[in-house]
Amino acid sequence: MFQTKVHRNKTSSLFSLLAVMYHTIVYNLRGGHRNAVVGILYEIARGMTLVLVFFAMFQLVGLRTSPLRGDYLLFIMSGVFIYMTHITAVSTVTRAGNPTSSMNLHSPMNTIVAIVAAAMAVLYRQFWTIFVVLTVYHLAYQPITIQMPIQAMGMLIIAWFSGCAVGLLFLALTPWAPNIVPLIMQIYIRANMIASGKMFVANTLPATMIAIFDWNPLFHAIDQARGFIFLHYTPMMTSLTYPIYLSLVLLVIGLMGEFYTRQHASISWFAGR
């Protein structure tokens, strides 16, 4: 009756791991709802609400035309959706892989599966959110043209990847400072409301202002994405490779920290919390 399941070869182990990852992704997609579709619809509503909020805010401050030669709402959406993808990846990955959580204490589940599943669920939700919103806008309001859609999608993936790397770093630090790291994460997310550059064009900023935002990989991702979306815009102040290299460095540091934390984690750390 009591048997230990042993995989006879690496192929069966791989398929078993992929099955666990698939079910974990579906679990993350539900987001507290009964099925994954409702979770995705909620994310679409959230994205559309944020776009409408920024549209109304720009109307109130008198910015009624796009700073670039192109569609006004597409300019807003290009910043909002990449920003949402990044910060959602940060917050989701940060909460994904607590090594002492009840789910991660049962084999074959582990923190790496939880982290990868959470990250993939974020990318899946954001992809469908962007696809649905842009399709509705294109069919119901006015046609839009994205000059280099593949490259623009690549910048979305870079923003997602950088968010996962930052979230993994926060995840590794959380057990050591459980009250401080969430506060730092919230400061990072709130700072990116301005520091991401989603509300302005990097080419129009003076050099003194560029130095304030240049550290942020999301700032580079949004500006480079607009270079691929709009025909008459060429990013001059941002780099395509900087967010990639920075994300790889943060990913390595985060993996090292997560591995070290997992080796020393104890349920007693969270006693009384």
Count of DSSP-assigned helices: 9
What's the structural domain tally?
Answer: 1
The biggest sheet amounts to:
none
Rg from Cα: 20 Å
> How many DSSP E strands?
0
Listing every helix as H and every strand as E from the N terminus to the C terminus, the arrangement reads HHHHHHHHH
Task: Give the low-confidence spans.
Answer: none
How confident overall, as mean pLDDT?
81
Globular, elongated, flat, extended or rod-shaped: what is the shape? globular
Q: Which class of secondary structure composition applies to the elements?
A: mainly alpha
Helix share bin = 55-70%
Your description of this structure?
Helix 1 (10-30) crosses helix 4, helix 5 (149-173) packs antiparallel against helix 8 (217-229) and helix 8 crosses helix 9. The chain has one domain. The chain has helices at 10-30, 36-60, 72-94, 111-140, 149-173, 181-195, 207-213, 217-229, 242-264. The protein is an all-alpha fold. The chain is globular, with a radius of gyration of 20 Å. It has nine helices and no strands.
Helix and strand arrangement:
Elements: H1 10-30, H2 36-60, H3 72-94, H4 111-140, H5 149-173, H6 181-195, H7 207-213, H8 217-229, H9 242-264
Helix pairs in contact: 1-2, 1-4, 2-3, 2-4, 3-4, 3-5, 3-6, 3-8, 4-5, 5-8, 5-9, 8-9
How would you concisely characterize the structure shown here?
By secondary structure, the protein is mostly helical.
What descriptors fit this protein?
globular; single chain; 0% strand; 9 helices; 273 residues; mainly alpha
